[in-house]
């Protein structure tokens, strides 16, 4: 039994790989960086966007399952979809619950998508993430094959992915850990959101593998727990204060359009500024109600404390940091940057500016 995981080093991919360890599956995972094989997990080093590397991986044999965590442009996906479907018994396409339009009711898999109901012609002319995922779903829906399963996670978290609104941890947490004030849109703080533990999503995917009720179907994989972004921030900072003994501050800014100049405006308008509540009864039926979802307060307490013990940062957004400084009246100095790598990036940005 062989499974290929494309781009399997993100939060959900890592959790799924760990879950499949020590099983009867032979698991192959593509990764850009060199990793040591372990037990039944084989890492294939290369960029899955590279056509030659991808073809070598996908045609290595006929796969029982391919789980695809890659993000494609619609044009790129349209060229590859037949290869995927012909090379496996079941192809999992990672979409996103960002595809959904605003709804006053809990979202089901049949709720309207932005692509279908949005009237913003400027936005529709783009291939922004939510639109791209919906268009790629349509490509699968119109094929003559049904050996695919579309999954729509929403905002997921683990030890290394901790989101706050549109910000990743490199935008919000790094700034707080420097002792600076975070800047956040006032309009978003009461918006309802859902954050799902990545390991829970991985379990749900594993329950859909070779599940007859999953073929040719779409599932969002989310908890039904609903929190405001203000509540999420308070939970984060409560854990941080308990762990570090420090106090952390946020400034809510009334003019949301200010943020459009520094961030992807469509992510703010058509995702973060929409209440997200979910009805996950469809996947519960498909999995015979086997799924359990971690309560956010419990999951984030474990994940955030684990991260603080051994923090690993990707590239810090210094442009965003200095923009926030202009609003808060604070100053970020080179010694505030954590480590030589970030000090070098700090200097590089200052030179460009």
TrEMBL record:
InterPro entries xrefs: Epimerase_deHydtase, NAD(P)-bd_dom_sf
SUPFAM superfamilies: NAD(P)-binding Rossmann-fold domains
Signal peptide: none
Pfam families named in the record: Epimerase (PF01370)
Domain NAD-dependent epimerase/dehydratase stretches: 3-219
Family: Belongs to the NAD(P)-dependent epimerase/dehydratase family.
PANTHER family: DTDP-D-GLUCOSE 4,6-DEHYDRATASE-RELATED (PTHR43000)
Entry protein name: NAD-dependent epimerase/dehydratase family protein
Organism: Faecalibacterium taiwanense
């Amino acid at each position: 039994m062989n499974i290929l995981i494309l781009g399997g080093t993100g939060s959900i991919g890592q959790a799924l790989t760990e879950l499949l360890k020590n099983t009867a599956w032979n698991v192959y995972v593509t990764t850009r960086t060199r990793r040591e094989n372990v037990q039944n997990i084989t890492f294939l080093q290369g960029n899955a966007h590279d056509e030659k590397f991808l073809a070598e991986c996908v045609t290595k044999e006929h796969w029982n399952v391919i789980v695809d965590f890659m993000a494609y442009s619609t044009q790129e996906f349209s060229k590859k979809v037949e290869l995927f479907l012909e090379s496996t018994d079941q192809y999992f396409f990672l979409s996103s619950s960002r595809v959904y339009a605003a709804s006053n009711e809990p979202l089901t898999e049949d709720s309207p998508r932005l692509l279908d109901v949005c009237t913003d012609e400027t936005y529709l002319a783009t291939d922004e993430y939510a639109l791209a995922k919906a268009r790629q779903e349509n490509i699968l829906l119109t094929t003559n094959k049904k050996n695919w399963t579309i999954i729509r996670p929403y905002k997921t978290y683990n030890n290394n992915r901790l989101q706050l609104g549109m910000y990743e941890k490199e935008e919000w947490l790094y700034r707080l850990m420097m002792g600076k004030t975070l800047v956040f849109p006032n309009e978003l703080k009461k918006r309802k959101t859902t954050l799902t533990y990545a390991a829970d999503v991985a379990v749900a995917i594993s329950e859909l593998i070779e599940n007859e009720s999953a073929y040719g179907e779409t599932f969002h994989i989310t908890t039904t727990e609903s929190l405001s972004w203000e509540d999420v921030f308070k939970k984060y900072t409560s854990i941080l204060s308990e762990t570090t003994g420090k106090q952390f501050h946020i400034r809510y800014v009334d003019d949301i359009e200010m943020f459009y100049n520094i961030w992807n405006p469509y992510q703010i308008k058509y995702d973060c500024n929409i209440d997200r509540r979910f009805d996950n009864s469809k996947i519960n039926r498909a999995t015979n109600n086997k799924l359990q979802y971690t309560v956010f307060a419990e999951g984030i307490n474990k994940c955030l404390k684990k991260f603080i013990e051994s923090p690993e940062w990707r590239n810090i957004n210094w442009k965003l940091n200095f923009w926030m400084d202009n609003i808060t009246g604070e100053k970020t100095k080179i010694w505030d940057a954590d480590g030589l790598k970030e000090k070098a990036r700090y200097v590089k940005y200052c030179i460009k500016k």
